[in-house]
Design a protein that fits this description.
It contains 6 helices and no strands. The relative contact order is 0.18.
């Protein structure tokens, strides 16, 4: 897990003017500027907060990232167990 890259991404999406719009238009182009693995990029674009948390992302930075990406607080961990695994139908 590229903790520094993920935390920087979360901060930048919130504070760098125009970055969120560029992310929404072309997420892979924005993510390529950060030292993230393919799995991390997939988790970010999939808004998979539980997976990011389970792999060590700072919970505060994670919450900020999810809010900026439009994920309601109540939905951030819905359908996941404590290890970040998805459970359909929960």
């Amino acid at each position: 897990m590229s903790i520094v890259g993920l935390n920087r991404l979360a901060r930048d999406l919130e504070h760098v003017p125009g970055l969120l719009g560029r992310f929404e238009a072309d997420p892979q182009a924005v993510l390529s500027a950060y030292p993230l693995t393919a799995a991390e990029r997939e988790a970010v674009t999939g808004r998979d907060s539980a997976r990011l948390l389970a792999h060590g992302m700072n919970p505060v930075a994670l919450r900020n990232l999810m809010v900026v990406l439009g994920v309601p607080h109540g939905a951030m961990y819905a359908g996941h167990d404590a290890d970040g695994h998805r459970h359909e139908g929960r």
